[in-house]
Amino acid sequence: MKPAVFTGEHYITGDVACAEGAIAAGCKFFGAYPITPATEIAEHMAERLPDVGGTFIQMEDEIAAIASILGAAWTGAKSMTATSGPGFSLMMENLGLGVCTETPCVIVNVQRTGPSTGLPTQTGQGDMMQARWGSHGDYELIALAPSSPQDCFYQTIRAFNLSEKYRVPVLIMADEIVGHMSEKVVIPDASKIKLVDRPKPTGRKDRFKLYEPGPNGVAPMPSIGDGYNIHVTGLTHDERGYPAMTVEAQEEMMTRIKGKIQNNLDDIIETESYRMEDADIVIVSYGISVRTGLAAVDQARALGYKAGLLRLVTVWPFPEAMIREIAGRVKGFVTVEINLGQIHYEVERCAGGKAKALLVGSAGGKIIHPDKVLECIQKEFSL
Amino acid sequence: MSTQTTINRTEIIVTGFGGQGIILAGRILGMSASLGDKKESTLVQAYGPESRGGACNAQVIISDVPIHYPYVNTPKILVAMSQAGYDKFAPALLPESVLLVDQDLVHPENVPCDHFAIPATRMAENLGNKMMANIIMLGFCTAITEAVSSKAAQATIAKSVPKGTEERNIEAFTKGFDYGLSTLKGREKRAAGQTGALAQ
To answer: In B, which residues are within 8 Å of A292 by CB distance?
Structure first.
């Protein structure tokens, strides 16, 4: 058998790096339906999973694909699916099931331009609000946005670790350019990769409660076949996991589902800064648009502007406290994203009128050129 | 305007028909620079229907510093293996660019920059496989532009082409490389002839 971790230097696409990250993270089940521009993840998983004793299934559609990874997760396997906009839409109902049943799993959305079939082969970042609110009801989940193939590798590992630790579906919000571009990806020794496994229950099997929270608010999770009598349902349930049709049970369940994320923001939220030390103009970006933002920062600095970049590695939960704090000491924010305003509105909300909140967006189809960001800075800010 | 495009940054566009191995040529350039020559390198490629028959392109950036914006602004090197591809990207050429064409497939007019020609497809046919025209062109490009080292390119080709065809592809690369070297030599001689100083 080939190793789970392909230690060494590779020149690969983001899609392939994402698949390698999943294998390195211990993913043993991948169920998906092929769709541009995420198909290469499925192709690579189909090739690699047999190497590590894992299972690949091409399901009949995306509804079945996400159902399959939820089921696999309850057998104890780390599981993943990958899709793009139209498939992501189909997954929304069962994404809520994953949140409600607190099922660890990873869902990759290699975004293309919508709505509907849109521009199937061209990039977009228009699914960011769908990632946060696409399934019905109130909930929390985690979404990460890689901005290079190397990042695809690391963020996929991180996605598995977070999903296991917090028993929550984690979304990787990539995009067509990151998925298809090739760059050097350095894969470290297996011993250097820190993996997290879901908390497992101990103690008497007959007194076990499926949703009794542990110290960080997350309940230990047995696998089907471990001998615990468990009931897993999308109905509102009590700590035993049994349906409980009361407002009290609903409140208790929601407190746990939201609390395990809200009370661990420092662990979950990751950002990166570029030339931010003395910056008074902050470009906020995520995914491929970070590459636009970084170039724009250098261009703006060359003209004398004190520009910096805040990269949202974790997009959901949103780094509200950080944006609020920055808003108090800068002239303004420029959010760069390949849509006509999604994360921009979050930045604007947190800026709270204390600093300007501007958008450099696009209708989709291609990366935003740094010159567009520079134009915005020159128009809106004085030197 | 862009600070990134000034120094230590080589932007390359390889263009042709889908099916000519344009993307593979771009991948070999990027991989050679990255894994062989230990530079930073980014490859973005045409992905829609054009990569399956239409005007296809691969955009490679090679740099000594991390690459932010991954697309080519102004190609320092344009490798054109189809007229349609040439027509699409020729307007982006600057006086300091270098144009390389397959002379039987591309007929450039009013080129604003230095340009070199090779009958890559014909040479590949003479080698018994026109699918190797892209590798011949890579050899030619390597000799003329030194965008990547010949050593890195050959090592990458051996890793990238179908098993069993490594030797033939290296031979194709060498043919293109040698053609490039003699093209350069011919130029030197002509230049010398014009001045008279080194005329033989």
So the answer is: 68-69
In a domain, B73, yes or no: yes
Q: Can you give the pLDDT at residue A1? A: 67
pLDDT of residue B55: 81
Give which of A36, A182, A185, A294 to mutate to test B binding, by max B Cβ within 10 Å: A182
Q: Give pLDDT tens digits for A88-138.
A: 999 999 999 999 999 999 999 999 999 999 999 999 999 999 999 999 999
Inside any domain, residue B85: yes
* A361 compared with B19, residue with greater pLDDT: A361
A231 in helix, strand or coil?
coil
Phi, psi values for residue B60, rounded to 5°: -120, 135
Domains of chain A, CATH where assigned: 8-192 (3.40.50.970), 270-380 (3.40.50.920)
Candidates B28, B40, B47: best to mutate against A (most CBs of A within 10 A) is B47
Does residue B4 lie within any of the structural domains? no
The answer to whether residue B2 sits within a structural domain is no
Measured distance CA(A335)–CA(A346) in Å, rounded: 10
Name the residue range of residue B166's domain. Answer: 9-195
Q: What's the pTM value of the predicted model, to 2 decimals?
A: 0.95
CB hemisphere CA count around A37 (13 angstroms): 33
The pLDDT tens digits for A205-232 are 888 999 999 988 999 999 999 999 999 9
Tens of pLDDT, residue by residue over A162-201, are: 999 999 999 999 999 999 999 999 999 999 999 999 999 9
Nearest to A332 by CA among A305, A312, A313, A314: A305
Minimal C-alpha gap between B136 and chain A (Å): 22
Q: What's the structural domain count of chain B?
A: 1
State both tokens at A325.
């704090």
Residue with tokens 């869902």, as numbered in its chain: A107
Q: How far is CA A378 from CA A195, A334, A340, B169, in A?
A: 45, 12, 20, 51
Burial of A45 (0-12, 13-18, 19+ CB in 10 A): buried
Tokens of B44: 């973005």
CATH of the domain at B36: 3.40.920.10
ipTM of the complex: 0.94
- Cα nearest neighbour of B24 on chain A: A182
- Point out the residue among A176, A181, A298 whose CB comes nearest to the CB of B4: A298
